[in-house]
Structure formats: C-alpha cells, structure tokens
Specification:
Helices cover 38% and strands 10% of the residues. The chain is α/β, with parallel strands linked by helices and 585 residues long. It has 4 domains: 192 residues, N-utilizing Substance Protein B Homolog, Chain A (Orthogonal Bundle); 35 residues, no CATH class; 54 residues, no CATH class; 240 residues, Rossmann fold. Helix 2 runs antiparallel to helix 3. Bound molecules: S-adenosylmethionine.
Length: 585
C-alpha cells in the first residue's frame, strides 16, 4: 500500500469543507490460474491427485526492516514548544541527558518499533498485517503485554489512518500525501496513541519523537513533535467536530472520516444495509472492533464441549462454534490436530445451510468449487463423513417460502424444512491456486482436492448434488479482520470480479444435477457481488430458482428480507457473509 494509495483512498479532500484548519508551520520537504489437473471425467478425482507443480508454500511476507531514511531538512516551528520529550511509557521522570542544549539520547521502545515496522511493511511491500505481525513479534522476542501493545498500536493505526490523516492535515502545513511516508506513518502512530489509547499524552509524543529520531531523522523528529503537540490539544471527539464534514450536507463523507473508511466503501455498505445511515454507522464502528477468535468443532472429530474445556465459550448461533476469549488458537489441542479450526461463525453457518436443504434422490456427491484455503471444505468434509450431528433447531423461519425477485418461481416440491444430513457423501474440493489447494488438502480428511479452474470444469455437467461456491470477492465483509484491507480494496476491481463471479455461478449451476442445490456465498455484502450476480442468473435461466436461505438457518434472526441471507458484524458479531441457495430444476 503506497502512501499515495492511502492518500487517494483516505476520506480527505477539500470538498469536505471541514473549515477552520490551522496548520503548524514547518518546513520539511518531503489470481493466477492454476494447473487444472482435470479430475477424472466423472467428477471425483482421487485424493492426492492435485496436479500442481512446484513447491507449494504459504505466502509469507518478509518481515520489515527498519530503514533509517536519514534526516530530512527543515526544522518545523508550529505550536509545539521546545524541550525534551518525556520518557516512553509515561513514567513522568526526566529524560536522561538533554541538558546544555544537547538533545537527549532517544530511547528505543521495541513495541513501538515493531508497530512502526509493520506499518512500513504494509506501505512499502503490501504486506498483510495479520500474517507479518506474528513473525515480527517472534523475531523481536516480544510477548505478553509488549506483544499486545505492538499489535494494538499497529492495527489501530492502520484502521484509523483515514481519520488520523484528516487531523494531521489540520495540524500541519502540508497535506499527508506530501509528507514523507516513513515520517507520516510514525506521526499516525503517535496520533493513534494520543487519541485512541490510554497512553499519557507526554508519553505518546515523546516515544514517537524518539522513534522518528531513531528511524527517520532528527529534523523530521522536530516536525513530528510540532504536529503531535498540536494534535494533543484536543480529544478525538473535538477533532472530529472540526475535521469531519457536516453530516447533513455530506453524510457519506462524515461517516468516512468519523469511522475511517474510504468513501466508496461507506456508500457501498450504506446501500447494502438499505440506506439507513444509523445502521451504516453501527456497521462501520463494528469494522473497527477487533473480532474475537471464532473456532469450529468439526463434527465427529471434536465438539463444542471439548473447545469449552479449553477455555472457549459456546457460539451464539453455530452448533459447532465457540469463541476463544484470549490466547493462541494453535495452543488448543483440537485445533493443532485439525479436528477443530479457526473459522468465522457465519462461514460455518452458510456451509451448514447448504447441507440442510432436503434433496430428492441421490445426495452423495458434493463439490466445493473455490475451496482454498479450506475453511468451508473442512466443515463440509466432516459433515459429509459423520453427518450433521447437532441436528436442526425446532424453530423454523418458513422454509420453502421462496420469494425470489424477477423471473423466479417458488420452491419446487412444496415447503421443505431444513434437515440434518445423516451422512455420507464424497466431496471434491477445487481451487485454482496450487498452494491454496494444498492448504485444503491439509485441512480435510477425505475430500478429493484438485487444482482446477471452476469456470472450466474438470467434471461432467450435473455431476454433483450439492455445490458450494464461495466466490472470490472484494472481502468487504471481513474488514475487521484485516486492518489495512479497506485502504487496499479498489472499486475498479468490481467489474472484473463480477464477471468471474457470474462465470463461476453459471458453472456451479451447470455442475449440479436437476433437483440439486448451489450455495452462492461471498464474504462481501456489496450489492454488485451479491444480489446483482444472483439476480442475473435467475433472470437468464429458467432452470434455476432461489430458495429462502433464511429458512435453513432458523437459529439466526436479522438475516434480511430474503430470499437471501445476509450476516452482519454489528448484528451477529460475524463477518458480513452473504448466502443465496439456488435449486436447479
Ligand atoms: C473466498 S475464497 C474461498 C474461501 C474458502 N471457501 C474457505 O472457506 O476457506 C475464494 C477462492 O477462490 C479461488 N478462485 C479464484 N478463482 C477461481 C477459479 N476460477 N476457480 C477455482 N477457484 C478460484 C481463490 O484462489 C480463493 O482461494
């Protein structure tokens, strides 16, 4: 993520009319395609037949290295006074040295350096924060509270930088995009501490100034000091009242600044929740919360009881779900042994819903068409073999009452409530990327994993009874999991993704036999990726009908007006997962 990118995406701009900005003066310049292995014509390639070549490996980001970028010229003036910065951690004591005009020796604070390195790696190398952070913590030997601090500072800064850049702009004589990226990242880290943490202001400023002196340069540290001192004069709420656009004149811009999301995402989420700005605000706020770690106990292999015995709490909706309040999920034995796994509750439920649709006739061939890295395939694998051991809750939301839009008819065969699959079925798990197919293979027991392009099926038409299509998407429903993701997503990817989603859905429908069912799932609530895609196929094909997906999730309320089911972070505490259930006539 380049700084330019952030600047483009961050919700700032003269049209916001924030007014009243006084700035510190200061001078400082500054989806590849896999190797379709083809299965065997008949749709059930044997396990271990993935044909990809080369060594598969998890994509791993290289840990960041600090780059002292050298001091940049120009001592800032501005509102900050002179004098030594306070000690890190807000001890309140005097800084060592610093008398007689010589600046005190900067103190290196490892947690903040790790947070800073993460920000730089995200900016310079497009690193994924949640993949890189564990590596950085291990390399720097940070654990316990220090590791928690480094993580909170880095993730919080990445989430909040849209808001923080507006505030920096109000406190500086330069727009954020004109500030040298290493310096800007350090300033953002300081702003986050000042406005969103309980770090005492003098410690937030002092540790950031030290960080800049060590990692960027002495001249830059004076500039950072000036900006941060100005930021420290107001609370976050006070700053928002100054820098956020008027909600009456520009409600999207207002929410974008207050909740630190790009404007286009705010607009898309507003549309997805039906235009209600209060609900949009609740959703954006939920995106800024760190999600709890959700676990799935794969039926027949583990149980919610086993997970709760390891300290987890039972999930609200999923009969196989549990939440880990703290600690490393890998330390849970069932997870370490792949009998349980980390999986969002909505991901569990959409997979479960697919298995609950009653079928007439054969029900032994299942396909997961976009399976990598294998979350849903792992749960389907267990249900296919051991059955849905939890059963279906008694309450039912009116199964069979399909009210699809457009040219869609009601569910054939009359009302058919959810059923618990009794086992047993054989799953084929296809994935276009070889290294992701390997992950599917590692997490499933009996699924036949194949590296294949779902749009060019390696199986015969109508070969399957149930098809899971968890389509590639923008991932706007999982922003809370990936702190930097909102600044990386680009609305220009939507048309191409839309084409792929439609091609995959056509292929999924062709892959299922008459009477069989397809689950179309996205981890995005964007209407262009959800109802628009499904609506197109319903209009174009008279052999497809939509079921009321909510009826197969009777334990969950608030899934929308149907016939689709839409999960929400602010309502369900899950990712914003979309589910359509389509039956082939
Ligand atoms: C949303 S992810 C699936 C997540 C997975 N179902 C899970 O629960 O872990 C979408 C996957 O589709 C794969 N993919 C993209 N294009 C594909 C294609 N043409 N055929 C098959 N898989 C594809 C991507 O590589 C990615 O792994």
């Amino acid at each position: 993520m380049s700084n330019g990118g952030k600047g483009r995406n961050a919700p700032r701009g003269g049209d916001h009319g924030s007014g009243g900005r006084s700035r510190a003066t200061g001078g400082q310049g500054s989806g590849g395609r896999g190797q379709g292995s083809g299965g065997r014509g008949q749709g059930a390639p044997g396990r271990g037949q993935e044909s990809g070549q080369g060594t598969a490996g998890r994509a791993q980001s290289v840990p960041g290295r600090g780059q002292g970028s050298g001091g940049r010229g120009g001592a800032p003036g501005g509102p900050a006074g002179r004098g030594g910065a306070p000690r890190p951690h807000g001890g309140g004591g005097k800084r060592p040295g610093g008398r007689g005009g010589r600046p005190a020796k900067p103190v290196r604070d490892e947690a903040r350096n790790v947070a800073y390195d993460l920000l730089r790696a995200v900016d310079e190398r497009d690193a994924y924060a949640n993949l890189l952070m564990p590596t950085l913590l291990r390399e720097r030997r940070l654990s316990g509270r220090d590791a928690g601090l480094a993580t909170e500072l880095a993730y919080g800064t990445l989430r909040g930088l849209g808001t923080y850049d507006e505030i920096v702009a109000a406190c500086s004589d330069r727009a954020p995009e004109d500030i040298d990226p290493p310096l800007l990242d350090a300033i953002r880290l300081g702003v986050h501490q000042l406005l969103k943490t309980r770090v005492p202001p003098h410690a937030a400023v002092g540790t950031t100034v030290d960080l800049v002196r060590l990692r960027v340069g002495v001249g830059a540290s004076k500039y950072a000091n000036a900006v941060l001192r100005k930021v420290s004069t107001r609370s976050l709420e006070q700053w928002l009242a100054i820098v956020a656009p008027d909600p009456a004149g520009d409600p999207v811009g207002h929410l974008a600044v207050v909740h630190s999301h790009p404007r286009w995402i705010v607009a898309a989420l507003r549309d997805a929740v039906g235009g209600d700005f209060d609900e949009t605000a609740a959703l954006l706020a939920a995106d800024n919360e760190r999600p709890r770690v959700a676990l799935v106990a794969r039926p027949g292999r583990s149980s919610v009881e086993e997970l709760t015995a390891s300290g987890a709490e039972p999930a609200a909706y999923s009969p196989y779900g549990a939440y880990l309040p703290e600690g490393d999920p890998a330390a849970v034995l069932a997870v370490a042994e792949s009998r349980a796994a980390v999986q969002d509750e909505a991901s569990q439920l959409v997979a479960l819903a697919l298995t609950r649709v009653p079928l007439r006739g054969r029900d032994s061939r299942w396909l997961d068409m976009c399976a990598g890295p294998g979350g849903k395939a792992g749960l389907l694998d267990a249900i296919a073999i051991h059955g849905d051991l939890a059963g279906v809750p008694a309450a039912s939301g009116g199964a069979g009452s399909a009210v699809p839009g457009g040219a869609v008819s009601a569910v054939s065969g009359g009302a058919a409530g959810p059923v618990a699959f009794a086992g047993r079925a054989h799953q084929v798990a296809a994935e276009v990327q070889y290294h992701r197919a390997r992950l599917v293979w590692q997490t499933t027991r009996e699924a036949a994993v194949v590296t294949a392009d779902g749009t060019v099926p390696a199986w015969r038409p109508g070969a399957f009874d149930r098809v899971m299509l968890d389509a590639p998407c923008t991932g706007l429903g999982a922003l809370r999991r990936r702190p930097e993701a909102r600044w990386r997503r680009d609305p220009r990817s939507l048309p191409e993704l839309g084409r792929l989603q439609r091609d995959l859905l056509v292929s999924a429908v062709d892959s299922v036999r008459p009477g069989g069912v397809v689950a179309y799932v996205t981890c995005s609530p964007h209407l262009a990726e959800t109802v628009a895609v499904v609506g197109d196929i319903l209009r174009r094909r008279d052999d497809v009908e939509a079921l009321d997906a909510r009826a197969y999730l009777p334990e969950v309320e608030g899934l929308g007006d149907g016939p689709y089911a839409q999960f929400w972070p602010h309502r369900h505490g899950t990712d914003a997962m979309f589910l359509a259930l389509l039956r082939r006539r």
